[in-house]
Design goal:
By secondary structure, the protein is mostly helical. It has helices at about 5-10, 15-35, 40-65, 70, 90-105, 110-135, 170-215, 250-255, 260-270, 270-275, 280-295, 310-340, 340-345; strands spanning about 155, 165-170, 220, 230, 305, 310. The protein is about 65% helix and about 5% strand. A two-stranded antiparallel ribbon has the order 1-2. It has a two-stranded antiparallel ribbon with strand order 3-4. A hairpin with a 5-residue loop joins strand 3 (about 220) and strand 4 (about 230).
């Protein structure tokens, strides 16, 4: 059993499969951590496993359908997952459907799962493209001369037939797309927490002062339903103003926006973020990822069925982008209609 740990045998492992499995394991751990304290770990694991199993099945089905010319003549390989071949469109559809069904059975709010899933999407994209880089799959189309293209776009690399030619860096561009999208999403969450802290600090202080002038001895004081203050001449500071070092940490109390404080607020408020952030962000990130995959498809050199001048999987990219963007717009409009206006909050 320990022979598999030998470096020679490790090099024989299917690197694409290993990287995907690592991505799934880390994604599962991240989902369990994100929902910890809000939903029992067993329920989260059940939901994620259902999504993972159905995602793999549907992803394989999409891959077979997109390459039916080959599989129609090699039907014995349809169920051979070890031979490789998973389509990311099918993986997303299968995962979402599986998680939605299991979330209904296990009593889990599917809406709250979409927020951590928006990080899982580019992370799994990164692991998938990394796997393709190691296995030479989804390789770029050949180019005539490297000097005719920007250095970031082309290189000399192998394909699945072990032919080294100048070609587009599709795998590396795909990894760059995933990392960029992941960075944007993380920055958005940081911006939300930072901006909300500043807004509440200013709004609460001004609101509390005006109310105390009108009523010097209030029974309670609240602002937009966010916090209730006890009778006092000045409202207490929000928790994030108190720093991580307790009351004795003067520096932390003076600067509420230092990096440790900010990270602590993101970690501590992740459950509330799952409720405050609109699910439209997940669908918007999926639309952006689909648009990026369409662009990468223009540079791919591996075999694909051509439908009306473009690859069949690019048509799926277009469908995913349009549908996801429309869902994001509808969710945003619906959220705006149901949220109380500023006048209603101040009434």
């Amino acid at each position: 059993m320990l022979e598999i740990l030998d470096p020679v045998n490790l090099n024989r492992l299917p690197q694409y499969t290993v990287l995907l499995m690592l991505g799934i394991v880390f994604s599962l751990a991240f989902m369990v951590w994100w929902m910890r304290g809000n939903i029992r770990a067993g329920r989260v694991i059940d939901v994620c496993l259902a999504g993972g199993v159905l995602g793999v099945i549907v992803a394989r089905g999409f891959h077979v359908a997109l390459n039916w010319t080959y599989f129609s003549a090699n039907t014995a390989e349809i169920t051979r997952l070890r031979a490789g071949g998973l389509d990311w469109h099918g993986a997303v559809i299968g995962a979402l459907v599986g998680m939605w069904i299991m979330s209904k059975l296990r009593g889990v709010a599917f809406r709250e799962l979409l927020i951590p899933l928006m990080f899982v999407l580019p992370f799994m994209g990164l692991m998938g493209w990394w796997g393709c880089y190691e296995a030479f799959c989804s390789y770029g189309a050949e180019v005539d001369n490297l000097s005719n293209y920007p250095a970031w776009q082309v290189w000399e690399a192998r394909d699945i037939f072990n032919m080294i030619e100048p070609r587009f860096r599709t795998q590396q561009i795909g990894m760059g797309l995933s990392v960029t999208l992941l960075g944007i999403l993380v920055s958005y969450v940081v911006w939300r927490v930072y901006g909300e802290a500043r807004q509440i600090k200013g709004d609460v202080t001004g609101y509390a002062d005006s109310q105390l002038l009108q009523n010097p001895h209030p029974k309670s004081l609240s602002h937009k339903g966010r916090r209730t203050f006890q009778p006092t001449l000045s409202p207490p500071r929000p928790l994030w103003e108190r720093g991580l070092g307790g009351e004795g940490n003067t520096k932390a109390k003076q600067d509420m926006y230092d990096l440790p404080n900010l990270l602590a607020q993101i970690i501590n408020r992740r459950h509330q973020l799952a409720k405050d952030i609109s699910p439209a962000i997940f669908w918007l990130s999926l639309a952006v990822f689909s648009a990026g995959m369409f662009g990468i498809g223009e540079m791919r050199g591996d075999f694909a069925e051509i439908v009306y001048g473009i690859r069949a999987d690019q048509w799926l990219d277009i469908i995913f982008c349009v549908v996801s963007l429309n869902i994001a717009i509808v969710l945003r409009i619906t959220r705006d209609q149901h949220e109380p206006s500023e006048r209603e909050l101040n009434a």
